[in-house]
Design goal:
- This protein is α+β, with helices and mostly antiparallel strands.
- Helix content is about 45%, strand content about 25%.
- The protein is built from 22 helices and 26 strands.
- The chain has a 6-stranded antiparallel sheet with strand order 23-22-21-26-25-24. Strands 2-1-5-4-3 form a 5-stranded antiparallel sheet.
- Strand 25 and strand 26 form a beta hairpin.
Length: about 775
Amino acid sequence: MSKTARTENDLLLFAFENLVEAVFLADSVGKIFYVNAAACHYLKYEKSELERMNLSEIDVSFYDEGWALKWSRLKEKQTCTLKTIHRAKDGLLLPVEIQAKHFRYHDQEFGLSFVHVMSEDQEIPQNNVGIFDHNMIHAHTEPLLLLNNERRILDVNPVFIKLSQFTRDELIDKEFQFCFLLPNLAEQVCQVIFNEGMLSEFPLDLKTKSGASVPVLVNALILRDLQGQVNNVIVYVRDLSHEKETEHSLRINDERFRRAQALGHVGNWEYDIHNDQFWGSEEAKRIYGFDPASERFSVKEVESCIPNRIEVHQALIDLIEQEKPYALEFEILPKNGQPARIIHSIAELKKDERGNPVAIEGVIQDITEQKKLQEKTNLLASIVASSDEAIIGKTLEGVVTSWNKGAELIYGYSSEEIIGKSITVVVPEEDRESVIQILSDIRAGKSIYHYEAKRRRKDGRIIDVGLVVSPILDATGKITGISTVAHDITQQKMSAAINASRLHLIEYSLTHSLSELLEETINEIEKLTKSQLGFFHFIEEDQGKVALENWSTNTQAQCGAKGIGMHYPIEQAGVWANCFYSQQAEIHNDFKSLPDRKGFPEYHADVIREVVVPVIRGEKVVAVLGVGNKLSDYDQADVATITRIADLAWDIAERKRAEEQLHRLNQELEARVYARTKELENANSELESFAYSVSHDLRAPLRHINGYIQLLREHTSQKMDADSLRFMDIITQSANLMDDLIDGILSFSRNGQNRDEFSRSQYA
């Protein structure tokens, strides 16, 4: 030790030795290491005697459990003030007030106490009751009572009266147990006092006049005369109600703190740099997979749970050496084998009075679930952000609070343009009443599914959307906002409308002519594209001429010109014919600005904008269908609509043209059959007349032949030889054959008449 250090120590020792107040230096179990001269003076011990003693030998209130509690409080608060009674070597009892300070030195704990003896005239002599007067009792600031050798109360001080709520007269001459809630236990305590001569901080419940109880610690000391007989018993009662309340509050707060740590999965820890000691709270141990009640929580074992321990260890070194902020997230593998956890750890450097690092204090939190939730939230946010559907958040009043990319695509507004504004920005005027009703339904807790509505894009185009509108609830179930998921169903609705139109045209074609079909086709396309004019041209086979097949009903009403069925060279056609040359659809949204407008018949309706679509089969354009005067610009969606209808119409037209040609051929065939039938009828009529004439002219001679042969047979049969008779039979047979032939001719003529009647019935 240097000379300077020795000088400083000598000066410090000199100061302690010359203090008026007594000084004690004792360890955590009460062993005395140092006393100054003042302590020796009032206790009447030699310095060497006191420095071999324990505080329990001079403090009448000392007992192990009570001392441990006092030491714990001193360690926690670092300083404290208390009152007690010290016993001098000669037996005198001295009320004292102690100011104590806790400190550590070379890893050992000490308490440095400054003891103030309250006053010389408050000494409690052990050998003379006369000196122990009422003034001394009444002057004491703690509850005191005095017993006689019969265990009855001789006196009480005002502090005790106030605590017990009894009057002095009500207490005097009462037995000791009268003052306590459990008399039997108090009687046993009194027996101990008289048997052992003293009592140190025994817990009892003091009985008050109102019937309530007050927790107290009882200290007692028997005062004897010079012959050793009991004169009095001084009883010192320490009110624990405030301490109990404080202790209870501390226990509650401690339990709340532990509960809060458990609920929040938050633990705290401390690392003693010099001793390499590591301490962790119960929740810190649980997080690392340790048994909070039994398992040791050492640096080595904690680090073994951290796969990336090098980074964590380096962060601690940086905190100690460079005071670099320590805030980490890292994975741990709990000791008990549970799945890996993610923790967030922060720490600060703890320094002594000279600014030297002595410890690291830290907090860890298990954020595994938060990380999972964050990942899920990030995933949901990514889904929302990248979704093609519009996902919109609104206040209960309809003010937009969130607007994803899908909403930007569908409605055309960026989030910066729309957030903070009313959702009615995208609602057509005629639909705003329905929005008010939707907001009202949501505020009432309803959800709306599969709702179809009209909405206006930033460019003014009206679109069809399908909506799902739901209330947003907070953790308490209170409705705090509105969520809307919208998807553009314009194409879906248009596809349904196109399919309906196609089906209608197919059915319409079954009962109407080609010209009527074409007119109805243009009418359907006008409805689908919201147009007001339309035409259908056929391109002839040589690709040199065009035929105006039909106009729409609207066009015919607007146009005074009569052009249906007109044929003219295609080079004389207007700008619509450009699609014939390019074989692609042409959109003319600023029709009047076109320099090559021509081909309009007189009295043709005025055209503002138009779209024309070619119908192509093979390498040829076979038809052109066009519509015009939509209130807004035409686009490729209109082209797709017209193309689908025009292609179907052409296929039906081809079938209708084939049907009409077949009908014409059938009519020509029927006419030829009819003429041929007429010819056959005339021939049959002539044949019939001839047959009747022949039968009439031939039957008379046959009758004469048959008649005369019969007469000849009757007159000469016996006179004729066999040959003559045979000749006569031949003549008769020939006549009969001739008669049969005449019948056949008549029958044939009648059959021909029946055939004519059958033919007429078939073609009638």
